[in-house]
Specification:
This protein has no helices and five strands. With 89 residues, the protein is an all-beta fold.
């Protein structure tokens, strides 16, 4: 498959990878050839945690491998303020 055969999208906190797999053209000859590769449309969905930064998601397809990077949002820091507590006698 080629990169143009894939569609990668984010829908409702889900990463969706879809596409169409087609058979390559086979030249007929006097010998027999058997092909056992499934063809047609496919769709795979992965639920994403809420901490993923949807604006920075990237996908790269190279040499038959798709690499999807899902960067997390920066962590929010919580500031704790301590106060002296006085007890009443």
């Amino acid at each position: 498959m080629k990169a143009r055969d894939f569609k990668v999208s984010l829908l409702n906190s889900k990463l969706v990878i879809s596409g169409t797999r087609q058979l390559p053209e086979v030249k007929m000859s006097r010998s027999f050839h058997q092909v056992e590769i499934e063809t047609g449309e496919f769709r795979v969905e992965f639920a994403l945690p809420s901490a993923v930064d949807a604006e920075k998601v990237t996908a790269v397809y190279q040499n038959g491998i798709m690499q999807v990077e899902l960067p997390y949002l920066p962590r929010r820091s919580v500031q704790v303020v301590s106060k002296d507590v006085k007890a009443k006698d």
